[in-house]
Amino acid sequence: GFTDHVALGSEEWNPWDADEKNELVASQQRYEANLKMIKYARSHLEQTSLRVQIWGKAAIGLYLWQHIFGGHLEPADVTAQWREGSQKAGKTYFSFLTGPSVVPGYFSVEAEHVVLVLNGREPAKVAYATQWLHYAQTLMETRKIQHVAVVLLGNEQCNNAWVQPYLKRNGGFVNLLFVTYDYAFVNEEDIFQWPLGVATYRSFPVVEPSWSMLHDPRSYLCNFLGTVYKNSSRETLMEILKQDGLDKLCWIAAREQWQPQETNESFKNYQDALLQSDLTLCPVGINTECYRIYEACSYGSLPVIEDVMTPGDCGNSSMYHSAPLQLLKTMGAPFIFIKNWKELPAILEKEKKLSLQEKIERRKKLLEWYQNFKAWMRQKFINTLENSFMPSDKG
């Protein structure tokens, strides 16, 4: 540092003293260099503080915000017309908006960077998602926003061709796409696989692991609560469970018709089943990946997954060759993968012989893995946005 009168160039100094003069020049230079550094640091700081607004127009947005980001929403009431939350993560300030009142043109766009969370599962949803994309495109063209990323609940057969023209690589404006299921176009450059997560549309909660969840003996070896489709592997599963009276050791509640809306009672039953079983059976549905996998993880019940590809366009990508569930496998998910439900009786025999201590260790490993998985997805999401949206420092 140096005293005020030097900085001010006050008349007190002696102009005939060369040493003193040199000292002043040197200190002026130091002062200017410091100023430059502060200015640079400031501009750099501003440059590295991204502001990102997430528009949650699909229930999968709640998995992103509440489960992966650990974010909160106000008001807490899930039926509220408008809910919002914010948090700083990495170099980025995130705000999240959701609810029926979030409609194109009727809310304030408060960031130059936007993440759109959309549902592209069926034609009616795609039509609605497209309206949002066109709104974002208009904002881009009028320079209201700079970058757009999309988190997409993809089609269960991975038929997502409609979204391709919107990607920058194809002449569109969307920088990044995070998409569920084993979409063959995942390349880890601008298209990334995203976890399906829990059924937030049924208000599946963020579950905090408790002492009893880890340490208490559980009443059932396994559970399966779900729809049994005609001529599906689920029918095979039911037959195998009945054969050796294994269904007596497991919590089985099969129904013939899928119900999108749970009753309070059926939902509580389902959560109890996860909490009371050591294993959760996950037969394939329309896609191998299902909410049940993540919901079982939340309660420390080990998923037993039927590891077969379902019909459609899902499959290996240029980056991954372990479909189905390549994202979970790449992340080292400690699940039991089987190719056929005929393997189940042997698994359950082994299960009977495990001590409580062994089960506790396994639960710890599963819950820890799931926490790490969510933390890793969050970090990856933030890094990907920052690398893509921030001006690079190459200049």
From TrEMBL:
Keyword Transferase recorded: yes
RXYLT1 C-terminal domain boundaries: 201-390
Pfam family, one: RXYLT1_N
UniProt xrefs under InterPro entries: RXYLT1-like, RXYLT1_C, RXYLT1_N
Nucleus keyword on record: no
Gene Ontology terms: cellular component: Golgi apparatus
A GO MF label: ribitol beta-1,4-xylosyltransferase activity
Keywords: Transferase
Name by which UniProt lists this protein: RXLT1 xylosyltransferase
